[in-house]
Design brief:
By secondary structure, this protein is mainly alpha-helical. The protein has one domain: Proton glutamate symport protein (Orthogonal Bundle), CATH 1.10.3860. The chain is globular, with a radius of gyration of 22 Å.
Length: 407
């Protein structure tokens, strides 16, 4: 049985046991939920333990990778600029569209109340601070160690960005040593995350059981809304990339749609942008008319540096958690989440899907002042949205290539 199937089975098993036992023996169900809840919390704490070192390492490595790619020529610099513009546009769109889309869904007040009781009330964070001046001051940490200890992700990421940019000014030998250190930190932390994810069935079972005992069957209906919301968000972004290819890449709509279809089919079936790279190269050169020189440079860079659905996912997941808790996100919270999502997405490419879902969403969710507990349940149903996310990433890679080729 695949890891995804094991986690999904644990989710359904925990939910079914919680619902049935609550109907038959409510007192026993509550007692068992009191035992299961700490197990689920322990699993989430183990994941949260890895977030700070992983995010710092990924941001520094992302700056280093972008800097290395930029020095390889004018075409590479133009490609990086296109990637950054598209990432910012995707994050901004998600911050505007996701709350609007979720506002159209029915929200059960009883579900909100039961989820608050089952998982807890969202804690206040730096993103929820009142006053523009206060929010602005917290961007630069006076004590980076204290920021890390408090999980204040935005100032921590800003510090990591400054460190990464400063590292590009260090003499090459010492810079290479520092990059190797952060690469080792990243690889080690991902290994620990892999160990924690090995125990995901137990953690998800405990979370699903305890939440369903307190919140009932409506938790599963909420996860169904999550799948629908994320798939719709990915599809809308994917359709927007056709417009980018037509307007900025000077492609004919029918030619672009037909040209990228073979790569899209492989993307959905494999759920891997890297596995789709040969098909993308063939589509770009033979179907879209991009020059071999541009294609050979831009598409491998795109697979290595560019994942357009990453900031969309981070914002969409955070907005959905706010929706199920009945939290109305402010403009400043959405702006903080969007900025953080763009920066983190530069370093998230190449991470396994489950690692990326949990470890990379946690900083954005925390920065927006929301609880991370629902992420454990979302992990179990991520397979379907992930196929649409890969579809969007491959479409984004090819659209970006047409824009660079045109210029």
């Amino acid at each position: 049985m695949s890891p995804t199937a094991r986690v999904l089975t644990a989710l359904l098993g925990g939910a079914a046991l919680g619902i049935v036992l609550t109907g038959v023996q409510p007192a026993l169900a509550r007692d068992m939920a009191g035992v299961a809840q700490p197990i689920g919390d322990l699993w989430l704490n183990a994941l949260q333990m890895t977030v700070v070192p992983l995010v710092v390492a990924l941001v520094v490595l992302g700056v280093a990778s972008t800097s290395d790619a930029a020095v390889s020529g004018r075409t590479a610099r133009r490609a990086i600029l296109v990637f950054l513009v598209l990432l910012c546009a995707a994050a901004t769109f998600a911050a505007i569209y996701a709350p609007f889309q979720l506002s159209l869904l029915p929200r059960d007040p009883e579900l909100i109340a039961s989820l608050r009781a089952a998982i807890g009330t969202p804690p206040a964070t730096d993103a929820a601070a009142t006053g523009f001046a206060q929010r602005l001051v917290t961007i630069i940490p006076s004590n980076v160690i204290a920021a890390a200890a408090q999980s204040a992700m935005l100032p921590l990421v800003v510090c990591a960005l400054l460190f990464g940019f400063a590292l590009t000014r260090v003499e090459p030998r010492r810079r290479a040593q520092a990059i190797d250190l952060f690469q080792t930190l990243k690889d080690t932390t991902v290994t620990i995350v892999g160990w924690v994810l090995w125990a995901a069935p137990l953690g998800v079972f405990a979370l699903a059981f305890s939440v369903c005992v307190k919140a009932g069957f409506s938790v599963l209906s909420a996860l169904g809304w999550y799948i629908l919301a994320m798939c719709t968000l990915y599809l809308v972004v994917t359709l927007g990339l056709y417009i980018v290819a037509v307007l900025a890449g000077r492609q004919r709509l029918r030619q672009f749609a037909a040209g990228i279809l073979p790569a899209q089919v492989i993307a959905v079936s494999t759920q891997s942008s890297l596995a789709t790279l040969p098909a993308m190269v063939e589509s770009a050169q033979n179907r879209l008319g991009c020059s071999p020189a541009v294609t050979a440079l831009v598409l491998p860079m795109a697979v290595s540096l560019f994942r357009i659905t990453s900031p969309v996912q981070y914002i969409g997941v955070s907005c959905f958690i706010a929706w199920i808790y009945g939290v109305d996100l402010t403009t400043s919270q959405l702006a903080v989440g969007a900025a953080l999502a763009v920066v983190i997405s530069l370093g998230s490419v190449g991470l396994p899907g489950q690692v990326s879902l949990l470890a990379m969403n946690m900083p954005v969710v925390q920065a927006m002042g929301l609880p991370i507990a629902p992420l454990g349940l979302m992990l179990a149903v991520e397979t379907i949205p992930d196929a649409f996310a890969t579809l969007g990433n491959v479409t984004g890679d090819l659209a970006a290539t047409t824009v660079v080729a045109r210029s």
